[in-house]
Design a protein that fits this description.
The complex is a heterodimer of chains A (476) and B (174). Chain A is mainly alpha-helical and 476 residues long. Chain A has helices spanning 8-15, 30-42, 46-73, 88-112, 122-144, 169-189, 192-201, 205-215, 222-255, 267-293, 297-300, 303-334, 337-348, 352-369, 373-376, 379-406, 421-441, 449-458; strands at residues 459-464, 467-472. In chain A, helix 4 packs across helix 10 and helix 9 packs across helix 10. Chain B contains 5 helices and 6 strands. Chain B has helices at 14-26, 44-47, 56-81, 94-120, 151-160, and strands at residues 4-11, 34-37, 129-130, 140-147, 165-168, 171-172.
Chain lengths: 476, 174
């Protein structure tokens, strides 16, 4: 058999990467990029209004009217009852807080790590944080039932002369979620100021007034940039531990109770990783949607970004699988009678399909698909995998909360939770999230143009041997 | 004594802008009389300019301390002001106090950082300012104040270095 070697020249051309594939190496003039982002904001087809109208209708019926009914009739119209006093409202709370983690992770952690692929979609992720937290807060208020006494949560002496009890994890939750909501909103706003100023310079009419007010008089002087950059560095470092604390504290709501399935020392990190799992998958869904539906976004969001997010999804999926098994192993090995019953109920009970679905969506599907570069770079595939991961993570929270509450140490109370009005309200919160995101996409520059330009200024190509390789200069 | 005039020179690239500032210094324009306005942040090392003082880190530290003190007040102060004795247990417990202190410290840190940007940059400020919208399209502007008699000399130097336009800086509504 005669071996034939590939011609040297051809080998080089097939191995060489196309520099224009990378956003950082394919710069456009800043004015052109500004124009593209503004055009994306202003171009609205009839489909947008149809979808927005439908979502508005869903929000009106499933969120506002249903919630009004819940408030007027009381929590009796919901499915929560003994032994599952915590139902879908808290499943949604945990889920939405999880979604909110992605914004901080993508923006702050990748900023600190100087991961360049973050640049075009940090804002899309940060918006998810703020909007996700709004849904989480709404879900908590729904769970409270009597929302008109929600001010009792504040550190304010109530009619009985007592202060809220900070020995309760619910009190910690209040502080952590509020801290995170305020911090993430501020963190969203700071890097937005230069882009609002850009939008101000290119707008007329009511939009001009809107952007003028929000851009606060920003011009881009040395002092303004210095203060902004300093603040963003402090935020990037400061908000990361806050992000970790929020979901850890949410996990402690469960883990500090001596209930079967809940009393676990790894619940804190397990919840944090679960939050990142669903949050990063949601970022993938959002950027694929933005890329497909908004004008000019194919320039900013490229297969390289989908590839990077896909890799993150795979890594986080592996970590989630590790924590899940760790938690399962210790609970199973402990040999507690009721915990054994609960674990068996998870797998073989009426909600067993959900338990297996969780493992298939969160572990099997990412493991079997995301190792493949072609799949990671395929928008449709990445969106589908992201959707399945989110369904899987919602299942996980459902199993942890109402399904696990079914089996306790008092068998005479065992009863499977069946949601009622919660289903409508869940659909309502999801529709509300999508609706406010859609509205924001028409008012807020979704791509941080100045950050993209900064990255493009820092990147270049250098000849090493016969290849031209990417180089990054530290100009930040 | 001659009158001082303020100009805005516009460059399309950073290198000629930096060189222009060097030449302006050589012609007696001090750093205090210049300011760079740009669409992306350039560090003082890139611009060759003195470091801009920022109070943001100090305000952040102050906010963190204030937040921590408020956390102590919540965790320790109010439990002593309104004691609730349960089964002979201590009024203040360690772990929940740590959670409270952490959250309040971080809230103080981040909120004061945010406020610090407003204070240091004097935001919001809707007064007319020297600015042109080409800056947000990537141009780099040097805003400088000089005595009237140096106007032509510097104009010539900056034009030679590639300034796209040099015009008296007009305050306009942003």
């Amino acid at each position: 058999m005669v071996a034939t070697a590939e011609p040297l020249e051809q080998a080089h051309t097939t191995e060489a990467e196309d520099p224009h594939e990378h956003l950082m190496l394919d710069p456009k003039p800043r004015g052109e990029m500004n124009g593209m982002v503004m055009e994306a904001m202003h171009t609205t087809s009839w489909k947008f209004w149809v979808v927005a109208g439908l979502l508005g209708l869903i929000v009106l019926t499933c969120l506002l009217i249903s919630w009004g009914y819940l408030i007027s009739e009381g929590l009796g119209v919901a499915g929560v009852n003994r032994p599952s006093f915590w139902g879908i409202f808290l499943v949604n709370t945990v889920y939405w807080i999880g979604i909110s983690h992605a914004g901080t992770f993508v923006s702050a952690l990748l900023r600190v790590m100087k991961a360049e692929f973050r640049r075009p979609f940090t804002r899309a992720a940060e918006l998810m944080t703020t909007f996700g937290l709004i849904q989480a807060a709404l879900s908590i208020f729904m769970h409270m039932g009597r929302v008109w006494v929600s001010y009792w949560m504040f550190p304010y002496p109530n009619a009985r002369g007592l202060w809220p009890n900070y020995h309760s994890p619910l009190g910690w939750d209040f502080l952590a979620i509020n801290t995170y909501l305020m911090a993430s909103t501020m963190y969203l706003f700071l890097p937005l100021i230069p882009d609002l100023a850009m939008a101000r310079d290119r707008s007329t009419g009511w939009r001009k007034v809107f952007y003028r007010l929000l851009s606060l008089g920003f011009r881009g002087t040395e002092g303004e940039w210095t203060h902004l950059r300093t603040a963003m560095n402090i935020f990037a470092w400061g908000i990361i531990p806050v992000m970790f604390s929020v979901h850890t504290i949410v996990a402690w709501d469960f883990a500090v109770a001596t209930r079967p399935g809940w009393s676990s020392t790894v619940f804190g990190p397990y919840f944090v990783v679960g939050a990142l799992q669903s949050g990063i998958a949601a970022v993938a869904m959002v950027i694929v949607t933005i890329r497909a539906t908004m004008k000019n976004m194919k320039y900013f969001i490229r297969p390289e970004h989908l590839d990077a997010i896909g890799k993150l999804m795979l890594i986080v999926s592996m970590i989630w699988a590790y924590f899940f098994f760790n938690d399962y192993m210790v609970q199973w090995y402990g040999g507690d009678k009721f915990t054994q019953m609960l674990l068996e109920f998870h797998e073989k009970g009426p909600m067993g399909w959900m338990w297996f679905g969780m493992l298939i969506f969160n572990v099997a599907i990412p493991f079997l698909t995301l190792w493949n570069k072609k799949i990671r770079r395929n928008p449709g595939m990445l969106f589908t995998i992201g959707l399945l991961i989110n369904v899987g993570m919602w299942f996980e929270r459902y199993i942890i909360i109402p399904v696990s509450l079914t089996i306790n140490r008092m068998p005479f109370t065992w009863k499977l939770y069946v949601p009622r009005i919660e289903i409508l309200l869940s659909i309502g919160t999801l529709a509300f999230f999508v609706l406010i995101y859609m509205v924001a996409s028409r008012l807020i520059p979704l791509v941080p143009v100045w950050e993209v330009q900064e990255g493009q200024e820092a990147h270049g190509l250098r000849k090493v041997g016969k290849a031209r390789v990417k180089t990054v200069s530290d100009i930040e | 004594m001659s009158e001082t005039k303020t100009f805005l020179a516009l460059f399309s690239d950073i290198d000629p802008a930096v060189e222009a500032m060097d030449r302006m210094r050589e012609h007696g324009v001090s750093d205090e009389e210049m300011n760079v306005i740009s669409g992306i942040p350039f560090t003082e090392h890139i611009l060759g300019r003195p470091r801009v003082w920022s109070n943001v880190p100090r305000l952040a530290l102050g906010g963190a301390i204030a937040g921590c003190l408020f956390g102590i007040f919540l965790a320790v102060g109010i439990t002593n002001l309104y004691p609730l004795n349960v089964g002979g247990q201590g009024l203040v417990s360690g772990a929940p106090t740590v959670v409270l202190l952490f959250e309040m410290t971080m809230l103080g840190l981040l909120a004061s950082t945010f406020i610090g940007v407003f204070l240091d940059s004097t935001f919001p400020s809707y007064r007319p300012k020297e600015y042109i919208s080409e800056i947000s399209d990537g141009k780099i502007a040097i805003l400088y104040s000089i005595p009237e008699e140096k106007e032509n000399e510097l104009k010539e130097i900056l034009s030679h270095l590639g300034a796209e336009s040099i015009a008296p800086a007009e305050r306009r509504q942003l």
